Each structure stands twice: as structure tokens, then as C-alpha cells.
Amino acid sequence: MNSITIHPAHSIKGEITVPGDKSISHRSIMLGAIANGITTVRGFLRGEDNMSTMSAFRAMGVRIDDDGQVISIHGSGLHGLKEPTDILDCGNSGTTIRLITGLLAGQSFFSVVTGDQYLRKRPMKRVVEPLSRMGAKIMGRNQGSLAPLAISGGMLNAIGYDSPVSSAQIKSSIMLAGLFADGETSVREPSLSRDHSERMFSLFGASLDRFENGVTVRGGVELNAQEVIVPGDISSAAFFIVAALITPGSELLIRNVGVNPTRTGVIDILKDMGGDIKLLNQRELSGEPVADIMVRSSSLKGISISGSVIPRAIDEFPAICIAAARAEGVTTVRNARELRVKETDRITAMADNLRTLGVEVTECDDGMDITGAEFMSGGQVDSRGDHRIAMSLSVAALVARDGIKVEDIDCVATSFPNFFQLLEKVSVK
Ligand code: S3P
């Protein structure tokens, strides 16, 4: 288990690009694998989570080449996946296990999916229940609520599903199963979660209709290979946006970042707090909006965060907590219970670690109150095996009074393998 000590920075300066979007990278492999023809992917994120997805499809007989620049996926068509000869290990990746379970539900073979010690604690009933309603036979620990999951798939019945939570993983799992269902499968969610699946399904030629907070997919329609270009991940950019906002005298340009409106809650929230953030050179790549992001250090103020912005910023709360810890006044977060079932319980993990750094935090069931402070002390904090907790606390170190030692940082490789090198590059000491 590795640790790093990060020292305060004078300012954050420069121009960077961040690695490819994790959600889009996963989906490019999955749809490429079941399309007809060879899909090419540029800008693919070679983090551990996406490599888990790649290995799973290779284990189902899909040829995937990587020349270091371009990933080429030799699609097997809608019905060409092969029964894997071993358990599919999804590592730390919730997106891999939940989406692949939807896809496997529609295959006429047997498969078992599992993951690391963290993934095996995360709730799976949320996909097992609707997929079982579609006719899949899925067994798992704790009455099908925990991985490993054993899946006996086949022809599925189309369903209309009202999801109790706004979750792109639930929605996408059912959409993938819907490709193998007899008829039209619909999913509706309380408010819209990230819509990368909807956009990529359309790109690959799936038959799909969107309605308010929902989508309908028609089964049995073959997909066509595409050339996909993956933009930089706004969730990775978020650490650098917060770093530049809170470190005085900073100016940072982050080029080529995905700015899909279902993902830009973090920008809306940080702008509401007073952040100087500008989107430049807006354009579209492979059906996804992209921009360069210019950030300058700003005096932040506490705000209330709740409602439909929560799913639009769900992965960025650890970084937002660091901005809140430096803002004037109190920041309240509510309706964010989903944070408790991420790679770790992110409400408790951030509250405990911020308190270690001398910040006042009160936890509640679905959120927290953070009282901003002009000074954060240094100290020793712990990621609890969660990549985004590790990166957020590393950003806090830039403005802490003394250095911060972050324990358990290997997890950063799941989504952002060169994070520490980039942070070093833009930190003026
Ligand atoms: C993701 C959906 C979100 C997000 C995760 C990636 C996706 O999870 O937190 O990092 O790619 O679909 P939920 O669907 O559980 O909110």
C-alpha cells in the first residue's frame, strides 16, 4: 500500500490535457464488441477500470488490438460473444460489472462476474432485480444483492422500468439487455443521469427514442462499427479545476474536456460558488460536446447543493468538498445518498478526512455541511482505497498549512494513472 506526501504550492499554472473519459471508454468497448465490423477508439482511457472491461470482452472471444494510439475492436455482432471459460473479474469497476451483467443477461450462455473487495460490497440488486424481471436468471450472495453474480441469460422480455434512483449504470445495464429483448424496453429515472449510453447507442445505429428522463430501446437491431474519439474526462479535470480555483495566483487551461450537460454539474456548482471558469472552443466529437476549460483562482463562497444537479456531479463531490472547505461560509449537500455506495462511502470518508485537516463537517444521511476555513492544517489522511478520495485530498494539500500525507494511493490508477505527474507539472513551488 503506497502513500505520497504533497507540499503546498505557490500557484497552479500551465496547460494540460487529462486522460480519456472513463464512462465513454467503457461503452466504446462494449458496443464495439457487439457491433458488426471493426470499431476504432482514439483517446481511450488505459486505466485499470477500463482494462477490466477490455479483458472481459477478450475472455468472450472478442479480438481487441491496441497499437498504443488506437484501440481496434473486432466486433462479433449482436449474437457472436462466446461463453467465457473462467470468471470475469471486473476489478474495482462498478460500471464494468453492472453494464456487463445487463449484456450477459441477453446471452445464451453461463457466466460469472466478480470484482475486488470493494466492488463485492457494492449493491447489485439494483440491476439484478430489473434484469430478472426481463427473464434473466441471476444468482448472487445475499439473495442476489452482492457479487459474485452467476448469470444464465437468453432471450429476454422487454419491460418498462421506473428506476428508484438516478443511475447511469442501472439505466445502461437495462438498455444493453434491451438490445436482446423481444420488443421495446424503457427506463425512466427520477432525474437524468449521464447520457453517454443514449448518445453512443445512437452513434452505433441502435433503434432508440428518448423522452423526459427516460429512454426506449428496441431489441434485435444490429449495430454498426464506428470510429470513436473519446474526449478528456471532466471527472479527472475536476481535480485540476478545484486545484486552480483554491490556489492563489493560478491560471490553468485544460484542453479537450468532455462537457456533456449531464456531466457539467461540477462546473455549475463551482461557478455558483464564485469560481472563474470559462468554456472555450466548444465543439462536438463522436456525438459528445467538448471544450477547453480555462480556470483562474477565485474567492469561493458556501452554497446549498441539492436536487437534479446531484446526478450531474455525482463523481465530483470529493473534489467539491475541497472547494467547500476553502469557501467562505457553509456549503450544504443534500439528496446525495448515492455517495454512500460509491467505491467507498464518500460522505463519511470525506467528513473524517476533512476533520483530520481541521475542517468542521457535519454528516447527515444524504449529505453533509462543510464550514469553510481559511486555513487547513496538514496531517495524515487515508483514501480508503477510493481513487477520487485520494486525488481530492492531494489537491487539498496544495493549500494546507503543512504537507499532507495521503495513504493508499495505488487506487488512483483505476481512473487517472498519471495524476501525480500532472499535479507536479502544474504546481509552482
Ligand atoms: C457511471 C455512472 C455513475 C458514476 C460512475 C460511472 C457510468 O454511477 O458514479 O463513476 O459510467 O455509467 P451510478 O450509475 O451508480 O450513479
Task: Give a description of the structure.
With 429 residues, the chain is of the alpha/beta class. It folds into 2 domains: 3-20 and 231-428, Enolpyruvate transferase domain (UDP-n-acetylglucosamine1-carboxyvinyl-transferase, Chain); 22-229, UDP-n-acetylglucosamine1-carboxyvinyl-transferase, Chain (Alpha-beta prism). It is 30% helix and 30% strand. The chain contains 13 helices and 27 strands. It has helices at 22-34, 48-58, 94-105, 125-133, 141-144, 168-178, 196-203, 234-246, 265-272, 317-326, 346-356, 387-396, 419-426; strands spanning 3-6, 11-17, 35-42, 63-66, 70-76, 88-89, 110-114, 137-140, 146-152, 156-157, 160-162, 181-182, 184-188, 208-211, 214-218, 223-224, 227-229, 251-258, 276-285, 288-296, 304-305, 330-333, 360-364, 367-371, 379-382, 404-407, 427-428. The protein has a 5-stranded mixed beta sheet. Strands 3, 4, 5, 16 and 17 form a 5-stranded mixed beta sheet that branches. Strand 25 (379-382), helix 12 and strand 26 form a beta-alpha-beta unit. Helix 1 (22-34) runs parallel beside helix 2 and helix 8 (234-246) runs parallel beside helix 12 (387-396). The longest helix is centred in the first third of the chain and has 13 residues, at 22-34. It starts with a strand and ends with a strand. Shikimate-3-phosphate binds next to helix 3 and helix 6. Shikimate-3-phosphate is lined by residues 23, 94-95, 167-169, 172, 193-194, 314-315, 338.
